[in-house]
Amino acid sequence: xxxxxxxxxxxxxxxxxxxxxxxxxxxxxxxxxxxxxxxxxxxxxxxxxxxxxxxxxxxxxxxxxxxxxxxxxxxxxxxxxxxxxxxxxxxxxxxxxxxxxxxxxxxxxxxxxxxxxxxxxxxxxxxxxxxxxxxxxxxxxxxxxxxxxxxxxxxxxxxxxxxxxxxxxxxxxxxxxxxxxxxxxxxxxxxxxxxxxxxxxxxxxxxxxxxxxxxxxxxxxxxxxxxxxxxxxxxxxxxxxxxxxxxxxxxxxxxxxxxxxxxxxxxxxxxxxxxxxxxxxxxxxxxxxxxxxxxxxxxxxxxxxxx
Length: 307
Ligand code: NAP
Known about the structure:
Blueprint: E1 4-5, H1 8-28, E2 34-40, H2 44-59, E3 63-69, H3 75-87, E4 93-96, H4 106-112, H5 124-132, H6 140-151, E5 160-164, H7 171-178, E6 186-190, H8 197-201, E7 206-209, E8 227-230, E9 234-237, E10 245-248, H9 253-256, E11 262-263, H10 270-290
Parallel strand pairs: 1-11, 2-3, 2-4, 5-6, 5-7, 7-8, 8-11
Antiparallel strand pairs: 9-10
Helix pairs in contact: 1-10, 2-10, 6-7, 6-10
Bound molecules: NADP nicotinamide-adenine-dinucleotide phosphate.
């Protein structure tokens, strides 16, 4: 029997409606959540992500402060911009669009963001809180995957989850999130060093592909009735398409849909959830701010080099 195809856009709309309501309450108190967005260079994919995020923020009643910097911006200049946003009480969240040009050290930049404004959840403090099971910002894509599974009533507790891909933004935080007591899954993490990938993926009750390799997961690698979440977004050349390419996931959708019980499409699956979770993290940051959680503006924040 063919799988149920998850409508990520509809699920994201429900979360965005919840966020709009939280923002309405914040605005009644005079607080308009604002995201500081830094984009270095003109990578077309990054530009389109930043534009989509700005539109989503506006729809949710929030605002953004965009800093578009040239590709040759130096690391210290970028750090100074981050320090400015850290200090700015009108900005409750900061997002530096990745990837950064190769002359800038990504880890230095991420570490410079005030953890209280780290709505992407990439700061070492946020990573540590996730690993320790403490409250803190969780990266948006892993949160979106978990929310989609819950939306689809896929049982997570006790399930064997196999994650393919160990990046710091998707694979690793997913493993830490889903193995936490509140999700209670048993998680296996695969990567390029995994011998016989299919032997693992076939054991998955929930298979999450986040490798960035179009069509890596074929139907024969999926257990009959598994839930399949495709995080991958790959541009594959297509002369018939207007842009000359089309988007494909890491999963061979046509084959997988015949074996899985639930499957996410690309596009229209995990992608819209990622943006919805960013909005939710910003609402959270603003609520914490309003409640005084981030009131200590006099405190030195990590990226703050001011006297
Ligand atoms: P990444 O940093 O390139 O990491 C890819 C991971 O996959 C690495 O850990 C790599 O292993 C592993 N991998 C690659 N080929 C493999 C193979 N043949 N077998 C087993 N493991 C393999 O990518 P990422 O940033 O996590 O992104 C992954 C994909 O998700 C990309 O297509 C990206 O565009 C997409 N994405 C989508 C969203 C969304 O909102 N939908 C958000 C973020 C990312 P090694 O560590 O051994 O190299």
